[in-house]
Design goal:
Structural class: mainly beta
Radius of gyration: 24 Å
Low-confidence stretches: 1-20
Oligomer: single chain
Largest sheet: 22 strands, antiparallel, barrel
Shape: globular
Distance between the termini: 57 Å
Helix content: under 10%
Strand content: over 45%
Mean pLDDT: 92
């Protein structure tokens, strides 16, 4: 097998060039078509309308019109996505795609793999939005491009470059629940230099998260990022990205005795802190009149999480990830056939240290190393677009794995495009699942096997002139070796294990996006999902999820107003209300959230804005026994120079 991959990479080196999701590419090409970078390892932008894969781009205009402050909120508007937050802003927030687990979603921030190396997933409660950004959500098995984690799909959050959004922007706002928020951005570009510096703050006194509690659960989140690109010549570019994220959020625990056993109760002094540093450096060399691109990338993620009670540190962990990639992509244009051939080598090292001050907690260090070898082909012949990718992962802790993906799309003369794909995915166990230990509560299992997935999708998209696009996709996936928590007799201590049975997910995604006139824009998304494990409905995956965003503009574009309606259907959850700690299944009620936003330009440089969230004061729960905020109003001012 090694000989095969060495030969493949030798062939690729003589042709292709690839850059892992180049975070400096614009949102649109020269003709104004939307482009994305996440669906290819080539480093090139690909038009959304030509991709056989299912992908959603939420551009900066949409983020601004919906006044997005917490990134996970806008992900509720993406087909196939379900979001659950433990009560207040800043609480643990999980995102699931197409019925997969939250740790089956790969998260990239400006090209950097951002998940916590210890627990193997990314907490979206720690990510507030920047002043100028976009989001790409790629659905379906993508391990053939990115390796472990990308079973359900990939979410990439990208800050805009100085060339895309130049100038100085300042924002300040305040509102309900003692909330204050602000942001600043300084960006620009010259012939050879592109730079963007930004920072955001979100602080709130919060609201109670216990059903009958009165303790407000507040949080403070800070985000800061820098992105710089230097292009000294037409064939060479250097890019650097740095990011810092800080969250200090109060939380509530569950009662350990009495009639409220297992229910969320006021827990004075309980809170957690999350610090994360991310960095990326990338050098790109383009040869053969722009047809051959080679990129060398290095990146790191350093995360620290600590949870406290009134008595002091309760538990914590610290993890690092170091990753290097060489990518090479070659473009061929023979007239009718346009091809892009890409090869890549990834090396990744993850390590962690448990900082929990307990004699029962594992205190040592552990690490894992992984080599990944990628080959990708993308081709277009007139109205036909095809793609194939293959990846081999060699891991020093788990069995080596091969994943692949095939996809194709065909556009008919009247704007209808049919597309389909088949792919496989893999997710390695996290350190908390392998080595986590809490006496009498939880014992890790170092013998866990990676989870594996395979699935297919088929969809159609219809363009209606240049003003609207509608589409629908059916998907079907199967997961084997699913990691779940078991409670074996006689002690009934929670322990992770691999299932012997398959978990199945299938469903339908529908979207519509239109701008029938310049003064009106609307976006619609709907998902029907059927996800079952061991004969039971999977938790925190509603059967129905839908959203509608409608924005109206005044003729002079000085005023805009946006109405957002989000529906979350009934869903299952688990409750640990039995003293044995064996979970009890419960059902959470459906709910509808309505937000209303408005923005008015006082001048070319100064704007005022406001919004009302949860207009109808809906009473709902996303996670069992965690109450959520009621109606809230916010207002602020924005300056651009």
């Amino acid at each position: 097998m090694k000989t095969i991959f060495v030969s493949m990479l030798a062939l690729v080196a003589a042709t292709p060039a690839l850059a892992q999701s180049d975070p400096t590419l614009p949102t649109r090409d020269a003709e104004g078509n939307e482009i994305v970078v996440t669906a290819s390892r080539s480093g090139d932008g690909t038009q959304v309308r030509d991709l056989p894969a299912s992908i959603t781009l939420i551009d900066n205009d949409a983020l601004q019109q919906r006044q997005t402050r917490i990134l996970s909120d806008v992900l509720r508007d993406v087909p196939g996505v379900a979001v659950s937050r433990t009560g207040a802003i800043g609480g643990m927030t999980q995102v699931r795609i197409r019925g997969s687990e939250s740790n089956h979603v790969l998260v990239l921030i400006d090209g950097i793999k951002a998940s916590d190396p210890y627990n193997g997933e990314f907490d979206f409660g720690t990510l507030i939005t920047d002043e100028a950004a976009k989001v790409e959500v790629l659905r379906g098995q993508q391990s053939a491009l990115y390796g472990s984690d990308a079973i359900g799909g990939v979410i990439q959050y990208i800050t805009l470059t100085g060339r895309e959004a130049p100038g100085i922007s300042l924002r300040a706002e305040g509102g309900s629940f003692g909330t204050a928020s602000g942001g600043a951005r300084f960006a620009g570009a010259s012939d050879t230099l592109d730079y963007a510096l930004s920072s955001s703050l979100y602080r709130t006194d919060g609201t109670p998260t216990a059903r009958d509690g009165d303790r407000d659960i507040g949080s403070t989140s800070i985000g800061a990022s820098a992105k710089v690109s230097w292009t000294p010549s037409a064939i060479f570019k250097l890019t650097g990205v740095g990011r810092y994220s800080y969250t200090d959020a109060q939380t509530n625990n569950s009662a350990l005795d009495g009639p409220l056993f297992g229910y969320t109760v006021d827990s004075p002094g309980v809170h957690f802190r999350n610090d994360a540093f991310y960095g990326l450096a990338r050098a790109e060399l383009t040869l053969a009149d722009g047809r051959w691109t080679n990129a060398l990338t290095g990146q790191f993620a350093d995360t620290t999480r600590k949870s406290y009670t009134a008595a002091g540190l309760d538990f914590g962990d610290k993890g690092q990830r170091y990753k290097g990639s060489f990518e090479s992509s070659y473009r061929l244009d023979t007239g009718k056939l346009v091809s892009r051939i890409t090869g890549a080598v990834d090396f990744e090292r993850e390590q962690f240290r448990n900082t929990t001050p307990s004699e029962f907690a594992f205190q040592g260090r552990r690490s894992t190393e992984n080599w990944g070898f990628v080959g990708q082909y993308e081709g277009t012949i007139d109205a036909l677009t095809v793609g194939a990718s293959l990846r081999r992962d060699q891991n020093n802790r788990f069995a080596d794995t091969t994943t692949y993906r095939l996809q194709a799309g065909y556009r008919l003369p009247f704007g209808l495009r049919a597309r389909g794909a088949y792919g496989t995915g893999v997710k390695n166990p996290g350190y908390s699942e392998l080595f986590g230990y809490s006496d009498g509560r939880y014992i890790g299992n170092p013998n866990l096997k990676p989870e594996k997935s395979k699935g297919w999708e088929a969809g159609v998209d219809q363009e209606i002139g240049t003003r609207a696009t509608i589409g629908a996709t059916y998907f079907d996936s199967k997961l084997e070796n699913e990691i779940y928590t078991t409670y074996p007799a006689p002690d009934f201590v929670a322990t992770p294990d691999n299932r012997d049975t398959l978990s199945r997910q299938h469903g339908v995604e529908v979207f519509a996006s239109a701008r029938p006139i310049d003064q009106l824009r609307f976006d619609l998304a709907y998902t029907w999902l059927h996800a079952r494990e061991d004969g039971l409905i999977e938790v925190r995956r509603p059967k129905h999820v839908a959203s509608v965003n409608t924005t109206v503009f005044s003729p002079d574009k000085r005023f805009s107003g946006t109405l957002t309606v989000r529906y979350n259907g009934r869903q299952a959850d688990v409750a640990f209300t039995d003293p044995s700690y064996v979970p009890v299944r419960v059902s959470l009620q459906e709910y509808v959230l309505i937000n209303l936003n408005a923005d008015y330009k006082l001048s070319d440089r100064l704007s005022v804005f406001g919004r009302i969230e949860n207009v109808t004061n809906e009473d709902y729960e996303e996670v069992f026994s965690f109450a959520t905020p009621g109606r809230a109003a916010y207002g602020g001012i924005r300056a651009n120079f």
